[in-house]
C-alpha cells in the first residue's frame, strides 16, 4: 500500500492489517504505552474544507507517534492562488514524509499521488472518505466481534460516505443495503463494483433497507460544498432519517453510527442519536486509532 486514496484501491488483507494495527495502537494509547514509531517524520495536512475530527485526530495522532504534524490551510498556500497541484506535489515531496489532503475533487488527490514521491492520504473528497470508513469498520468489529453475516444499512445521500461504506463494507464481507432517493444514488464506479456482490442491495425505501440490519448508518443531506442546494435537498431527503420506525425494523441490538457532524431531526432524530451516543463517539475516537495505523503503514512500509 503506497497511498490511501480510496477504499476501491485496498485489498481485504490491507484493510484487516490496518484494523489489526489500529487495535494494537489503541491499546497502547489507552494504557499510556509510548509508541514513537514515526520519530523524525513530518506530515503535511492540506485543508480546502472545514474539519474538526480529521484535523485534530491526525494532528494528535502524529504527535503521539513521535512525528510532527504541519497544518496547511489552502487559503494560505499558493495552491489557493492557482499553483498547480502537480507542482505543489513535487515541492512538498522534498520537505515532508506524507501528505493528508481534504479537498473537493478526487482528481486532485490522485494527481498529488501521481506527481509527488511521498504517500498521500485522502482526508475526504466529494467522492470518498476512506479514513472515516476505516474507523467505522474498526468500531463495528469492536461491537460485533467480526463482520461475517452482518447487515450494514446506509440511509441517505449517495455521497462520499455512502461510496466508501459500500466498498469497505462489501470488501470485509458484510451485506450492505442502501436507501437513497433515485436522484441521489452512489457514484457509478461504486455501483459497478457493488453489482457483483450478492449481499448488495439498493432501494429508495429506508424501511426496506433497514429490515434486520445489524448496523445503521446515515450522513448529512447536504455535504460540504453543497450549501446552495440545502433547501432543495431538505425536500428530496424528507423521510431518509434514522428514527424509531427504522430502529424497529432493524435487529433489536442494532448499532447506529454517524461520521459527524450530525443534523438532528434531519438525517437522524435527537432521540436515536442520544440513545446511540456511545457508538457514535467511539466511532469518532476511532478516527485517531485507525489513522495512526494508516500513517504507520504508509511511512514505515517495511513493517512496524
Ligand atoms: N467525520 C469527519 O470527517 O469530521 P470532520 O469534518 O470534523 O473532520
Ligand atoms: N458527507 C459529509 C461528511 C463530513 C465528514 C461532507 O462531505 O460534508
CATH architecture of the largest domain: 3-Layer(aba) Sandwich
Average pLDDT over all residues: 97
Strand content: 5-15%
State the helix count. 12
> What structural class should be given to the helix and strand makeup?
alpha/beta
How many E-type strands?
A: 9
Helix content: 40-55%
**Biggest sheet statistics:** 5 strands, parallel
The largest beta-sheet arranges its strands as 7-6-5-8-9
Gyration radius from CA atoms, angstroms: 19 Å
Order of helices and strands: HEHEHEHEHEHEHEHEHHEHH
CATH class descriptor of the largest domain: Alpha Beta
- Basic shape: globular
**What name goes with the CATH superfamily of the largest domain?**
Aspartate/ornithine carbamoyltransferase
Defining key terms:
alpha/beta, binds phosphoric acid mono(formamide)ester, 5-stranded parallel sheet, binds norvaline, 2 domains, 304 residues, single chain, 12 helices, Rossmann fold
Notes on the protein architecture:
The structure is a single chain. With 304 residues, this protein is α/β, with parallel strands linked by helices. Helix content is 44%, strand content 14%. It is built from twelve helices and nine strands. The protein has helices spanning 12-30, 53-64, 85-95, 106-115, 130-144, 160-171, 188-194, 206-210, 230-236, 244-249, 270-275, 277-299, and strands spanning 42-47, 68-73, 98-102, 120-122, 151-155, 175-179, 200-203, 215-218, 255-258. The chain has a five-stranded parallel β-sheet. Bound molecules: phosphoric acid mono(formamide)ester and norvaline (NVA). Phosphoric acid mono(formamide)ester binds at residues 51-54, 124, 132, 259-260. Residues 124, 159-161, 219-220, 223-224, 259 line the site of norvaline.
Amino acid at each position: 500500500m503506497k497511498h490511501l486514496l480510496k477504499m476501491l484501491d485496498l485489498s481485504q488483507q490491507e484493510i484487516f492489517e490496518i484494523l489489526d494495527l489500529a487495535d494494537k495502537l489503541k491499546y497502547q494509547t489507552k494504557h499510556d504505552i509510548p509508541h514513537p514509531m514515526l520519530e523524525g517524520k513530518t506530515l503535511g495536512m492540506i485543508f480546502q474544507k472545514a474539519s474538526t475530527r480529521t484535523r485534530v485526530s491526525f494532528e494528535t495522532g502524529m504527535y503521539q507517534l513521535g512525528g510532527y504534524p504541519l497544518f496547511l490551510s489552502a487559503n494560505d498556500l499558493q495552491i489557493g492562488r492557482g499553483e498547480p497541484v502537480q507542482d505543489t506535489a513535487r515541492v512538498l515531496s522534498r520537505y515532508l514524509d506524507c501528505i493528508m489532503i481534504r479537498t473537493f475533487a478526487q482528481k486532485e488527490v490522485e494527481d498529488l499521488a501521481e506527481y509527488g514521491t511521498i504517500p498521500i492520504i485522502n482526508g475526504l473528497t466529494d467522492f470518498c472518505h476512506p479514513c472515516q470508513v476505516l474507523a467505522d469498520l474498526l468500531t463495528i468489529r469492536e461491537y460485533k466481534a467480526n463482520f461475517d453475516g452482518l447487515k450494514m444499512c446506509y440511509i441517505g445521500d449517495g455521497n462520499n460516505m455512502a461510496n466508501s461504506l459500500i466498498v469497505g463494507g462489501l470488501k470485509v464481507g458484510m451485506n450492505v443495503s442502501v436507501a437513497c432517493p433515485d436522484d441521489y444514488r452512489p457514484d457509478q464506479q461504486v455501483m459497478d463494483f457493488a453489482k457483483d456482490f450478492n449481499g448488495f442491495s439498493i432501494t429508495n425505501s429506508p424501511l426496506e433497507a433497514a429490515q434486520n440490519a445489524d448496523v445503521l448508518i446515515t450522513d448529512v443531506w447536504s455535504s460540504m460544498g453543497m450549501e446552495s442546494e440545502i433547501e432543495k435537498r431538505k425536500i428530496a431527503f424528507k423521510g431518509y432519517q434514522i428514527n424509531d420506525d427504522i430502529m424497529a425494523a432493524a435487529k433489536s441490538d442494532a448499532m447506529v453510527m454517524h461520521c459527524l457532524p450530525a443534523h438532528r431531526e434531519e438525517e437522524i432524530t435527537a432521540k436515536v442519536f442520544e440513545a446511540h451516543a456511545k457508538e457514535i463517539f467511539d466511532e469518532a475516537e476511532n478516527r485517531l486509532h485507525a489513522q495512526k495505523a494508516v500513517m504507520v503503514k504508509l511511512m514505515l512500509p517495511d513493517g512496524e
